Amino acid sequence: APGCSRRPRRPGTSNTAPHPNYAAPMGTTAKEEMNKFWAKNAKLNRPMSPHLTIYKWSVPMMMSITHRGTGVGLSGAISAFALAALVLPGNYPYYLDLIHSLYIGPYLIGLAKFGIAFPVSYHTYNGIRHLWWDIGKGFKIPEVYRTGYTVIALSVITSIAVAFL
Amino acid sequence: MAAIVRLSSVCRRGVKPLFYQSTFLARPLAVPHTYKEHPYQLTAKIHASQALCGSGSKAASLHWTAERVLSILLLAMGPVAYFNPGPFMDYSLAAALTLHGHWGIGQVLTDYVHGDAKIKMANAGLFLLSTVTFAGLCYFNYNDVGICKAVAMLWSK
Asked: Which UniProt keyword terms apply here (chain A) (predicted)?
């Protein structure tokens, strides 16, 4: 239900215990306001102001979109795998042998393993960093950068190590 | 007319309703009809928070918490699956991965898709995709080697 609808009261007065409340709650939710904003601007065919093309990129920004990118990518890969399992005729060992028989060579296999391991590592480590933020820690800018670089370093090291397994 | 209150006096009260006007603030202010009674007070229009109001739905908040709980669960599943592979972990991973991905993509859609009809369609498509994903993973677990073994086999190449 939008806003407070329990008991009608004069605008500018409080619904709670006796303290002067000079804030007047609005009758619409934030979500409704947002929809109104988009509907109005889309209807007027207004162009969007430049944002990504003009704002200076920073390490936290890049790490954030990379977290999203790896997440979407991994999710897509899992969905593709599941779909393939449902649709393709053979079984898993059959397709694995098929790939193996292509004589790819150790370097490309290592590269492929790194290519799988890196998104998983990065998304996992950065995910932990996100959980750290969720409990309210590490928001100071130097901390953001420190934890960020740690995530990058750990991701690279883990991926290389795992690719050698 | 400007009723200027020193910033420090407002700050001392903490983040409470604001009732000062400043030319430096671009804050929409509503002047209620009680202006005449309190000529030095102007109110700000706000979205009532749960703390002040308490009659809103807790769904969004619970969803947020559930997302974090699932993330932590998924983190724990990694090492457990490594040391204890088998059908229990296969199906648990299938469920946890699908749900985590479903909620994650859901957030992406919420961020970038606007308009009631488009939002509904995008979420319906996502629901379909996640259902097929879970079905496919379960099918793989049942009829094929299973997730844990598949990862092990892939890496043994």
From this structure: Heme, Iron, Membrane, Metal-binding, Transmembrane, Transmembrane helix
* B 81-120 residues inside an 8 A Cβ radius of A: 97-98, 101, 104-105, 108, 114-116
Is residue B77 within 8 Å of residue B120, measured between CB atoms? no
- Residue A99 neighbours by CB distance under 10 Å: 12
- φ and ψ at A125, to 5 degrees? -65, -45
* Distance in angstroms (rounded) separating the CA atoms of residues A41 and A45: 6
Interface test with B, best of A13, A75, A88, A133 (most B CBs within 10 A): A75
Mutate to test the interface with B, among A4, A26, A29, A86 (most CBs of B within 10 A): A86
CA atoms within 13 A on the CB side of B125: 9
Question: Taking a C-beta distance cutoff of 8 angstroms, is the pair B130, B136 a contact?
Answer: no
Q: What letter would DSSP give residue A141?
A: H
ipTM: 0.80
Asked if B114 and A35 come within 8 Å (Cβ–Cβ), the reply is yes
Interface check for B136 against chain A (CB to CB < 8 A): the answer is: yes
- Per-residue pLDDT tens digits of chain A, which is 165 residues long: 455 445 555 665 555 555 565 677 777 888 888 888 888 998 999 998 999 999 999 999 999 999 999 999 999 999 999 999 999 998 999 999 988 888 778 888 889 999 999 999 999 999 999 999 999 999 999 999 999 999 999 999 999 999 988
Contact (Cβ atoms closer than 8 angstroms) between residue B81 and residue B93 = yes
